[in-house]
């Protein structure tokens, strides 16, 4: 192979000598790399010298400024442009000096100080987000916390009561210890298989049992367990999930659990988490009537109703069981939206004609009309009535609208649904389009306690009557267990 092909820049007798500045693309690229490496090395050396800030300002920027001043003499025709260049260079010098000082300070900080700086930076971003219309659950308004009196620290004087109390606490501890051992962080424990399980009612939110048990742990003075649960909530309870949840179940289990834990203990983490979750539930109310969807994707904010619910209707017990928690969310967050959403539900219900004064279980959130005329004080309807009463009591008996709705509904239930069996047992039947179904489901048994709770708010001539009704319904429920052999045996075994 000819040498000339191996040495492409060797001059030949028949070719003119190459110009000193004429290079092929390969050589230009190599020179560029060498030059870039040299520049990088120079700058690296400058930045890592002990007094690099002075070196930068005294050498690099000073010389540039001198050159600028030389070019901007009285005879210069571009004095305005030169002045701008000088200001730009001065700003660059100032920014570099500031960056160098901050870098040195950061290198000298302890890890905990750096962590705190990161937290402060996040809080600053959060505040700026709030200023632009975002929500900030880390900077809630100040609320003076008042611990409820008599929650803990009292032992009953009666020995039998103390013994029963200790037994209940023992059962709670057994349940809690088993959950913690086999299903910690899951929504529930399957006792036979001893495995954790997470119901799809909560999407991919975890820890329903932990949040649900917080108030019980505190009231029972199981403070070690309460602290462990609090730690889990602070570190692991996450609502930033791309999942569809039941608005009703998440409200009564998670929002309600967090609120009660806050009111008992005063720990801010519970208030913050409750408000955060409440904010994520608000898109459920984006319907033509403001009656919320039953199901909501917490990330997209898209809602829908259960496919089996009477033509896409919302369910009375679900949309009617948001009032207590949402009123407290407004109080604790300073955001009136929560209260306005649930008060709007009342407005919609009050505008509707109610058959025989009764509330059907299904309501279409788009049309604002009742679905099937099915009325039940048990499943699908139950807690709506309970929340009307408790809303009045929670308001220190100032919520006159809630009181009126409750007692009128109770009167309609007594007139149209409450009956006696041939053996003298009082029960609450179900109503379907004017026809009674003479059955009372297990969930209706709460009504005995509800009626007793509201008896002292009834007109004086009704108080005794309602207490008798409450006792009769409770007796019917007791008999339904006592007359069922298997359930009765289990019940007797447990209470011994």
Query: Do you know the CATH architecture of the domain at 239-495?
Result: Alpha/alpha barrel
Number of strands: 12
Uncertain spans, ≥5 residues at pLDDT below 50?
Answer: 1-22, 47-78, 126-134
- Tell me the series of helices and strands, N- to C-terminal: HHHHHHEEHHEHHEEEHHHEEHHEEEEHHH
Helix-strand makeup class: mainly alpha
Spatial sequence of strands, sheet with the most strands: 3-4-5
Strand percentage: 5-15%
Q: Mean pLDDT, nearest integer?
A: 83
Q: Could you say what the CATH topology of the domain at 239-495 is called?
A: Glycosyltransferase
Q: Could you say which overall geometry the principal axes of the C-alpha atoms support?
A: elongated
What radius of gyration results from the CA coordinates?
37 Å
Cα(first) to Cα(last) distance is 106 Å
Largest sheet: 3 strands, antiparallel
EC number: 3.2.1.-
Biased composition (Polar residues): 67-82
Organism: Sparus aurata (Gilthead sea bream)
Membrane topology: Single-pass type II membrane protein
Give the SSE layout.
Layout: H1 3-6, H2 25-48, H3 52-71, H4 79-107, H5 111-131, H6 159-182, E1 188-190, E2 195-197, H7 208-219, H8 223-236, E3 244-246, H9 247-265, H10 268-281, E4 295-297, E5 303-304, E6 314-315, H11 316-319, H12 323-333, H13 337-351, E7 362-363, E8 374-375, H14 382-394, H15 400-416, E9 418-420, E10 426-428, E11 430-432, E12 435-437, H16 446-454, H17 460-482, H18 485-495
Antiparallel strand pairs: 1-2, 3-4, 4-5, 6-7, 8-11, 9-10, 11-12
Helix pairs in contact: 3-4, 7-8, 7-9, 9-10, 10-12, 12-13, 14-15, 16-17
């Amino acid at each position: 192979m000819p040498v000339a092909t191996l040495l492409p820049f060797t001059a030949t007798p028949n070719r003119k000598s190459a110009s000193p500045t004429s290079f092929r693309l390969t050589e230009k690229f190599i020179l560029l790399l060498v030059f870039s490496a040299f520049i990088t090395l120079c700058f690296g050396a400058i930045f890592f010298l002990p007094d690099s800030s002075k070196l930068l300002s005294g050498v690099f920027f000073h010389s540039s400024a001198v050159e600028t001043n030389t070019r901007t003499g009285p005879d210069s025709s571009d004095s305005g442009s030169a002045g701008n260049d000088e200001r730009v260079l001065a700003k660059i010098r100032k920014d570099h000096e500031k960056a160098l000082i901050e870098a040195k300070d950061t290198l000298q900080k302890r890890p905990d100080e750096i962590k705190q700086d990161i937290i402060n930076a996040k809080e600053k971003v959060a505040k700026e987000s709030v200023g632009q219309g975002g929500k900030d659950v880390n900077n809630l308004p100040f609320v003076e916390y008042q611990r409820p009196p008599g929650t803990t620290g009292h032992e009953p004087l009666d020995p039998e009561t103390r013994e029963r109390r200790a037994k209940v606490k023992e059962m709670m501890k057994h349940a809690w210890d088993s959950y913690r051992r086999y299903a910690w962080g899951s929504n529930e424990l399957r006792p036979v298989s001893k495995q954790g399980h997470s119901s799809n009612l909560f999407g991919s939110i975890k820890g329903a049992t932990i949040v649900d048990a917080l108030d019980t742990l505190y009231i029972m003075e199981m403070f070690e367990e309460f602290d462990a649960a609090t730690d889990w909530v602070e570190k692991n309870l996450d609502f930033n999930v791309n999942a569809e949840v039941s608005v009703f179940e998440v409200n009564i289990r998670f929002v309600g659990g967090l609120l009660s834990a806050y009111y008992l203990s005063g720990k801010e983490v519970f208030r913050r988490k409750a408000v955060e979750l409440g904010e994520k539930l608000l898109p459920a109310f984006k319907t033509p009537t403001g009656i919320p969807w039953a199901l909501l994707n917490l990330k997209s904010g898209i809602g829908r109703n259960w496919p089996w619910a009477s033509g896409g209707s919302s369910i009375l017990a679900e949309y009617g069981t948001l009032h207590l928690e949402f009123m407290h969310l407004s109080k604790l967050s300073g955001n009136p939206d929560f209260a306005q959403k649930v008060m709007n539900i009342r407005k919609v219900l009050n505008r509707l004609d109610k058959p025989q004064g009764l509330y059907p279980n299904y309501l279409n959130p788009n049309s604002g009309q009742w679905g099937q005329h099915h009325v039940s004080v048990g499943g699908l309807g139950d807690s709506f009535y309970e929340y009307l009463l408790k809303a009045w009591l929670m308001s220190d008996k100032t919520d006159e609208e809630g009181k009126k709705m409750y007692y009128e509904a109770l009167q309609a239930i007594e007139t149209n649904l409450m009956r006696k069996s041939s053996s003298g047992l009082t029960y609450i039947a179900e109503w379907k389009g004017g026809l009674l179904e003479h059955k009372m489901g297990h969930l209706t048994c709460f009504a005995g306690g509800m009626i007793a709770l509201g008896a002292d708010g009834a007109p004086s001539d009704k108080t005794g009557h309602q207490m008798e009704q409450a006792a009769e319904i409770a007796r019917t429920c007791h008999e339904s267990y006592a007359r069922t052999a298997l359930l009765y045996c289990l019940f007797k075994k447990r209470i011994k």
